[in-house]
Design brief:
globular; 27% helix; seven-stranded mixed β-sheet; alpha/beta
Length: 255
């Protein structure tokens, strides 16, 4: 049974209830992937979401950023009443659909309807204990999610032992610039990329090395002595006899 069916500028958003009361949030009613799955009592059932939640720093309070709301399963798992949870979701229809599962703003949960990458660029540093990214629209992730640019922007936003966790859907996302600290394989469909603030990935390190090496190369080029232009060779034939020499020197003097 279809409980919700609306189309946004980003995707179609459908909530389907099975005969046993299980609910699925999907972009395609007949598609393989569900963005969120809940039981009849609106408890989240996504194994990857529980795995992501288990990887955040082990403290009861703190600040968590979640990019991509879906049905709000991660919010329910993370919300212990003491953590401040900021959620960024670009699609207003997704925010509307999440209310069917009992997920909405409250004292310690704030939902921002904007682009996740733009939000990251605009916030201060050294604030979040964890940044969790589960951003898919119509079974596609935005290009920035698996880019090194994301790490450049997001890593400074973390506290010293903070962590970035990215849900990677196997078969949906094939390419990634990011070399994570660790990859957790949850099931056949989901992997979690783990990036810790205090660990720099090889790709980022290589980029930084290139930046540092560039001025040295330029300095080496500047230290090279300037080559003087070669003077044109004198192709004039020299005199072979005394008379020829006398005539030749006379002409030189006249010049």
């Amino acid at each position: 049974m279809i409980l919700f069916d609306k189309t946004s500028p980003y995707q179609r958003v459908v909530v389907i209830e099975n005969d046993d009361g299980e609910k699925h949030l999907k972009s395609d009613p007949d598609g393989k992937y569900s963005h969120s799955i809940f039981d009849s009592k609106n408890n989240p059932l996504m194994s990857y979401a529980f795995s992501m939640a288990s990887l955040i720093p082990k403290r009861k309070s703190g600040n968590i950023l979640l990019i991509g709301l879906g049905g709000g399963g991660l919010v329910k798992i993370l919300d212990n009443g003491k953590r401040q949870i900021d959620v960024v979701e670009i699609d207003p229809i997704i925010i509307e659909a999440a209310k069917l599962f009992g997920v909405k703003e409250k004292e310690n949960v704030t939902i921002f309807n904007e682009d996740g990458f733009d939000f990251l660029k605009g916030i201060g540093n050294d604030y979040y204990d964890a940044i969790l990214i589960d951003a898919y629209a119509d079974d596609k992730a935005p290009g920035w999610v698996f880019s090194n640019e994301l790490l450049t922007v997001a890593r400074p936003k973390l506290v010293s032992d903070g962590v970035i966790l990215i849900n990677k859907c196997v078969g949906v996302v094939d390419n990634s610039e990011i070399v994570p600290s660790e990859v957790i394989k949850v099931n056949t469909d989901n992997e979690i990329f783990v990036i810790r603030k205090n660990e720099i990935s090889p790709a980022i390190a290589q980029t930084e090395e290139k930046k540092e090496d560039k001025p040295k190369d330029e300095a080496k080029q500047e230290d090279k002595p300037e080559e003087k232009p070669k003077e044109p060779e004198n192709t004039e034939e020299k005199p072979k006899t005394g008379k020829e020499f006398a005539d030749w020197i006379t002409k030189k003097i006249k010049k």
